[in-house]
Design goal:
Largest sheet of chain A: 4 strands, antiparallel
Pfam families (chains A, B): Nitroreductase
GO molecular function (chains A, B): FMN reductase (NADPH) activity
Strand content of chain A: 5-15%
Number of strands of chain A: 7
Number of helices of chain A: 11
Radius of gyration of chain A: 21 Å
Family (chains A, B): Belongs to the flavin oxidoreductase frp family.
Oligomer: homodimer
Helix content of chain A: 40-55%
Strand order of the largest sheet of chain A: 3-4-6-5
InterPro entries (chains A, B): Flavin_OxRdtase_Frp (IPR016446), Nitroreductase (IPR029479), Nitroreductase-like (IPR000415)
Shape of chain A: globular
Protein name (chains A, B): FMN reductase (NADPH)
Chain lengths: 260, 260
């Protein structure tokens, strides 16, 4: 234990924010009650206060409330009905278009926007940090959310429906609305599986999976009344062996990302 | 205004969580006071409760407290002294290694981990969502944080020092400690610059930059006693014209990411 990590018995590790974060569950069933314009502004305002790389703020959010459009996106996301049923479906987009356009008047000669994997990562991370603040903000208002990576399954069609220009790509969607279900917490990996000290511990992180496999088998067994108990690592193996969304690299290059 | 976004005058948009999120500032000067092991566990525990794509939990965190190692990382991040000065420097890594190793016993024949841009995005997003929860949790405990993208400037060296295996890459660092400064809030883009309704509004998002340019010029002028007032879009143009970290694509491919 390093001297910079002191032992402590203080009981100040319990507060309303930590409780909210500890209670996160994804919500896939929503009440009909709408989300107000003020709530939406508060949620996106909270998102905007997240950290951003050198203040580039390289993201945009499309708030989809049009029922026909929500239904289309629900289909494109792989028939996920809750995308149509939630009152507001947020599409979080990594966005370097605004930046490039805003910069144009200041650039002269051959100077222009330069594509790079680094810029792709900056925009993607900016978007995710903002979205997670939005998730926390929404939950603090009594709303529920679920991230929808499924919009990447038909990413070209989703982009076309939303009118996304070059240098903008939809990273994920997020259903927002009042929860009409109370799912139980899903256990996470043991802390030592993800937290390393001063050096990556490859043996320990893999060893910890055994304990988690047993935790998740118990969890599944309870949730399904004994019908399922596949260990986590076996479920993950199934995912790895059937790669999905192999169109992503071509799509991103087509949008001006990751060419170099 | 869609019927799914109702007008409302309810005053319930003020709570402790929203206030915390609204008050975020990056901290680059820390008191000597250490962070306790319990605080660190609470912060990473909160991170783990963030959403994760199909429960892959594709991230690891290296808590760096060793003074010599922190100093090295501070240098590698571009001589950022606060990396050495903060009591705990967290390195957030996108991690598909644990997943691949855990899956191995369940895969037979030619089945193996399949690289894809999609998997790269999943791991990167999982990492960022967890990290932002950690940032919020830390701030709820009275700690301050700053994200350090600078570790990507010498990403190969950082990876080597931390012993990161294939399929793991350091996405960003995060200084954590008790603040020894009280920076003012940095204004963000106007809400209509980032929030679109049902369709991306390319003209509006760029038009909104003009208002922000003037906001940021005022902000800079006040912060520097009149010495600086470069508009945001001009600063961004400078960034775009001098691309950084062009080694990222090769590095990621070398680590097993983004080959297809």
């Amino acid at each position: 234990m390093s001297k910079n990590i002191r032992e402590s018995d203080d009981a100040s590790l319990d507060n309303a924010v930590l409780s909210l974060l500890a209670g996160h569950v994804s919500i896939r069933k929503f009440r009909q009650e709408p989300v107000s314009a003020e709530q939406l502004a508060a949620i996106i305002g909270a998102a905007q206060m997240a950290s951003t790389s050198s203040n580039v703020q390289a993201y945009s959010v499309i708030a989809v409330t049009d029922p026909a459009l929500k239904s289309e996106l629900a289909d494109l996301a792989g028939n996920q009905a809750y995308v149509a049923e939630c009152p507001v479906f947020l599409v979080w987009c990594a966005d370097l278009y605004r930046l490039r356009e805003a910069a144009k008047p200041h650039l002269s000669g051959a100077a222009t926007y330069e594509d790079s994997a680094e810029n792709f990562i900056i925009a993607t991370v900016d978007t995710a940090l903002a979205a997670q603040n939005a998730a926390v903000a929404a939950e603090s208002l009594g709303l529920g959310i679920v991230y929808i990576g499924g919009i990447r399954s038909k990413i070209a069609e989703v982009s076309e429906r939303l009118g996304l220009p070059e240098l903008v790509y939809p990273l994920f969607g997020m259903c927002v609305g009042y929860p009409d279900q109370t799912p139980g917490l899903r256990p996470r990996l043991p802390l030592p599986a993800v937290l390393h000290h001063n050096r990556y511990d490859a043996e320990e992180t893999v060893r910890q999976v055994q304990a988690y496999d047993s935790t998740m088998s118990d969890y599944l067994r309870k949730r399904t009344g004994g019908a399922k108990d596949t260990p986590w690592s076996a479920i993950m193996a199934g995912r790895l062996a059937e790669p999905i969304r192999l169109h992503m690299k071509d799509f991103l290059e087509g949008k001006g990302f990751m060419r170099r």
